[in-house]
Amino acid sequence: MQPTQPRLHLGNIEGALRNWVRLQDEFEIFCFIADWHALTSMAHEPHLIKHNTREITKDYIAGGIDLKRSIIFAQSDVKEHAELHLLFSMVTPLGWLERVPTYKEKKEAMGSEERESYGFLGYPVLQAADILMYKPHGVPVGKDQAPHLELSREIARRFNNLYGEVFPEFENVIGDIPLLLGTDGRKMSKSYDNAIYLSDTEDETAAKINSAFTTPTKIKKTDPGIPETCAVCNLLRVYSPNWETQWEEDRQGIRGCMQNKRELIECVNENLRPMRERRAHISDADVEDALKKGAERAREVAAATMVDVRAAMGMS
């Protein structure tokens, strides 16, 4: 995840982090903070990235990443990522990058006044290096990242075709909750300012839920709701064990939006309470130690991969 902000929101937790936690029971998991990627939007304030990296590491650990079984590291601490990115960039056609959906969306959002950087266009190549460096069996991500993973596979296939079989074909490992809605009914995102964060207090969480989007045509309690398009009902589906009853009562006009919000506040805060308590006891020293040890293990694997890459290319 990119450290563009010093905290993770429910979309990050449910769309990715919980899946990582489950997978560490079966696999060695490499979880990294994409601090180089953050420079595509934070090149003017790089001093914030180190702080944000520490804070997101706390969220990883609080969310259940077990440092005895899994690895957490900062991307910039493993320089091999930059070398593999450079080599991949030499064999990746420009047209592949220009067709990435998120590139088109972000370019339009930037407007004509600001020109995109080479790094902005080429970040999927760096992402391919991040993934393929560890020759993974699978990559656990949210559904919205699937196009990026396919590009990484295409780059691996092109490299293998040119130089020999170095990189295995990996699987997409999509979590149980591929997309989480934010408080305004759109995808939960830092950029939309519609997110609930692990680091929010219980009162801050309550305030955000109380202002959340509900069915516009449900003015009175007895008006029928449309839970499929209601942000509060969609979050109840994730966090409430009784969501099916709550949805049906909302649809029939048996319950009102305020009741939904009260029950959602209780469910979300109860769900996040153990993580929030763990996070409060993680020190900066704990984080630095975890990142140092994680980078050492990641560099071992990355160095071995680069030996294979250079040998395949005849550049040993």
Question: What report would you give on this structure?
Answer:
The chain folds into two domains: 203 residues, HUPs (Rossmann fold), CATH 3.40.50.620; 77 residues, Orthogonal Bundle (Tyrosyl-Transfer RNA Synthetase). 56% of the residues lie in helices and 5% in strands. The strands form two sheets. Strands 1-2 form a two-stranded parallel sheet. A two-stranded parallel sheet has the order 3-4. Helix 3 crosses helix 12 and helix 4 crosses helix 7. It is globular and about 75 Å long. It starts with 9 loop residues before the first helix and ends with a helix. The mean pLDDT is 93.
Strand order of the largest sheet: 1-2
Helix/strand-derived class?
A: mainly alpha
Number of domains: 2
CATH topology of the largest domain: Rossmann fold
CATH homologous superfamily (4th level) name of the largest domain: HUPs
CATH class descriptor name of the largest domain: Alpha Beta
Note the main sheet.
2 strands, parallel
**Spans of at least 5 consecutive residues with low confidence:** none
Secondary-structure element series: HEHHEHHHHEHEHHHHH
> What is the first-to-last residue Cα distance?
32 Å
Q: List the total number of helices.
A: 13
Question: What portion of residues is helical?
Answer: 55-70%
The Cα radius of gyration reads: 21 Å
The number of distinct β-strands equals 4
Indicate the proportion of strand residues: 5-15%
The CATH level-2 architecture of the largest domain is identified as 3-Layer(aba) Sandwich
Tell me, briefly, the overall form: globular
Mean pLDDT: 93
